[in-house]
Amino acid sequence: MLRIAIIGAGRIGVVHARSVLAHPGAALAVVADPDLAAAQRLAETSPGARAVSDAAEVFAAPDVDAVIIGSPTRFHVPQILAALDAGQAVLVEKPVELDMARLDECLEAAGERANRVMVGFNRRFDPSLAQVYTRVQAGEIGPLQQLTITSRDPAPPPEAYLAGSGGIFRDMTIHDFDMARHLLGEIASVHAVGVSTRPETAAAGDFDQAVTTLTGVDGGVATIINSRQSATGYDQRLEAFGPLGSLEVGNATPTLVRANGAGGSGMADPYLHFFLERYAAAYSAELDSFLTSVDTGVNPGPTMLDGRKALELANAATESATTGMPVNLDAGATRPGARSSA
C-alpha cells in the first residue's frame, strides 16, 4: 500500500483524492494546504489521513511514499525539488512552471531524478484518446497527416484566475499541445491566432479565442481550436486523419439517450459539464500508471521533459499570436537529466 500526500486542497486536489481513495493500492496519508480548514475537509474523506498547513511537513513525513502536487504553479518547482530530496516520487499538475528559465533550473537541479517526476497531462490516459493513440501507432489509418483538436470550456474563468494563469496557451491549450505532440511527434513550427472578445480577457492581456496550427517534423499538421466559453458546454473532440481513414472522438454525455419528436430529432443530454466529469476515468488511469511506476521502479510518463516541450509550444504560440508570425522551433533540442515519453 503506497502512502500518498496531496498538496493543494482545491478543486484538483479533490479530484486526486477521489482517485486515491478508489485505488486499492493507495492510501491518503496527508493533505497540505495553507487553508487548514480546506485541508481538514479533504483529509476527513479518508480514514487515517491528517491535515497540515505547511507543505514542508509532507517532505519531512516518514509515512509518505509519493506526493501529488496540485498547488498553484508558482510553488511547483520548490515543492518538486523538496519531494525529490526527501526520496518521494512526484506527480505534478500542469504546467510544471510558467517560466522556462525556472523550469530549466529545476531540471538541472533534479538531474536524473527528474525521471521520477510524472506531469499531469491526464488526457493521455483518457480511454478514448488512448485508443486513438494505440491505433495510430499500429498504422490503422496510415501515417498521421492531419490532427484536429477542439477544446472549448463551458464558461470563462474568474478574472483573478486569469491574472495568474499565464495566458490561454500556457493554461488551457497546453493539454492540447501535449496531445498533439504525443500523436504527431516533435513539432517544427507553430502559427497561432488569438482574439479577445471579452473586456476582462483583453484587460488581462490574454485571448479567449485561439486557433493554432502545428507542423510536425514528419510532415503531419495539427489544428487546435480553443475557446474560453461555449454555449453548448464542455466541447472536447479529436480527429486523426490519414491516407487509410480516420479516427474520431466525440463529446461525452451523461447517457446515450436520444429523443425524437415534433420538436426535433436526435436530441441528447448536454455534454458532461467540465473536465472533472469528462476526464474522471483519465484521472483514475493516470494515478494507476503513476503508482505502477513507483511500485516497479520504471520511470513514469509524461515526464518533466514532456512538460518542458509543452511549455515551449505554449510560449511559441503566445509569441506567434502576438506578432502574427509563425515561430520555427529547434525540434531536436533537449535538456539533459530527463527523457521524453512522447
Structure report:
- By secondary structure, the chain is of the alpha/beta class.
- The chain is built from 13 helices and 15 strands.
- The protein has helices spanning 11-22, 36-43, 56-59, 76-85, 100-110, 127-137, 159-163, 168-171, 173-184, 199-203, 275-278, 280-296, 304-323; strands at 2-7, 26-32, 50-52, 66-69, 89-92, 117-119, 146-152, 187-195, 209-216, 221-227, 235-242, 245-249, 258-261, 264-268, 327-328.
- The strands form 3 sheets. The chain has a 7-stranded mixed sheet with strand order 12-11-7-10-9-8-15.
- Helix 2 links the parallel strand 2 (26-32) and strand 3.
- Helix 4 (76-85) runs parallel beside helix 5 (100-110), helix 5 (100-110) packs antiparallel against helix 13 and helix 9 packs across helix 13 (304-323).
- It holds the Pfam family GFO_IDH_MocA.
A few lines on this structure:
By secondary structure, this protein is an alpha/beta fold. The protein has 13 helices and 15 strands.
Low-confidence stretches: 333-339
Widest sheet: strand order?
12-11-7-10-9-8-15
**Looking at this structure, what is the CATH superfamily of the largest domain?**
Dihydrodipicolinate Reductase, domain 2
SSE string: EHEHEHEHEHEHEHHHEHEEEEEEHHHE
Strand residue content = 15-25%
What spatial form do the alpha-carbon principal axes imply? globular
CATH T-level fold name of the largest domain: Dihydrodipicolinate Reductase, domain 2
Helix content: 25-40%
CATH class of the largest domain, please? Alpha Beta
The number of E-state strands comes to 15
Mean pLDDT: 94
Distance between the termini: 29 Å
* Overall radius of gyration: 20 Å
GO cellular component, one term: cytoplasm
Family: Belongs to the Gfo/Idh/MocA family.
Organism: Bogoriella caseilytica
GO molecular function, one term: nucleotide binding
